[in-house]
């Protein structure tokens, strides 16, 4: 039996809860949302699926969860220029997450944007081992990168490291190393804008993030020990410390078990350094 606690049962959190249950990944759910009528509706909707599922809104049950998802707070929308703009607004919600999950023994996935800064904040405020707090974003960015590469006939696979935002780092050297710099910059510009049409058309992304989040939860629950791009508090890896950024990490039941340090080419190394500078500027501001 696997118990999942979802803090923030809205657009992404609710979809993750549903997908995790519908695919048989979890059979126990602890749901929380600040809007009580909405939370009640989400619980009823899940129960009406007829799935063999135990659902509660009693947060005292979170202490027994195997995996936690932090999806609460203000979502990104077309009126907000970047994920970083959300940081100050969502810190009180992150504090609530830390309070509720203070005795939680499992792995926590931070989705609330800016996910890298929130992952770092929760890691430091909670005192959890850094491998137990995973910031989400790298898998979704990587999927978008793969689409861009396939459209140009360059490769069928790709990975994005760095920040989940404008300072993401597509790793061309491991998939399409001969891609010239102007094409790299063109692809990167497209990745930065990838979510905008979705937000303009329907208010926010749902399906893409939810599928990749559940894949990450599965890697944890099934102890798959897969290498995935997840945001972890860095302590010297890639020459970076004092922030969380997406890096290739072996993910299993304990969270990020091991971080791989890939050889980045000069273009990628430069982008990674800029991502670290930007992310540290956010994390230095955090009250930790």
- Whole-number total of structural domains: 2
Number of helices: 9
Name the beta content range: 15-25%
* CATH arch. level architecture of the largest domain: Alpha-Beta Complex
User: Could you give the count of β-strands?
Assistant: 11
Could you describe the largest sheet, including whether it forms a barrel?
Answer: 6 strands, parallel
| CATH class label of the largest domain | Alpha Beta
Rg, Å, rounded: 18 Å
Q: Mean of residue pLDDT?
A: 95
Characterise the protein shown here.
The protein is of the alpha/beta class. The protein has two domains: 3-135, Rossmann fold (3-Layer(aba) Sandwich), CATH 3.40.50.720; 138-283, Lactate dehydrogenase/glycoside hydrolase, family 4, C-terminal (L-2-Hydroxyisocaproate Dehydrogenase, Chain A, domain 2). Helices cover 40% and strands 20% of the residues. The protein is built from nine helices and eleven strands. The chain has helices at residues 11-22, 36-47, 87-100, 115-126, 138-151, 181-192, 196-202, 207-221, 266-283; strands at 3-7, 28-32, 54-56, 67-70, 107-110, 133-135, 160-162, 168-170, 226-235, 241-252, 255-259. A six-stranded parallel beta sheet has the order 3-2-1-4-5-6, with helices on both faces. A hairpin with a 5-residue loop joins strand 7 (160-162) and strand 8 (168-170). Helix 3 packs parallel to helix 4 and helix 5 packs across helix 6 (181-192). The chain is globular and about 55 Å long. The chain starts with a strand and ends in a 5-residue tail after the last helix. The model has no long low-confidence stretch (mean pLDDT 95).
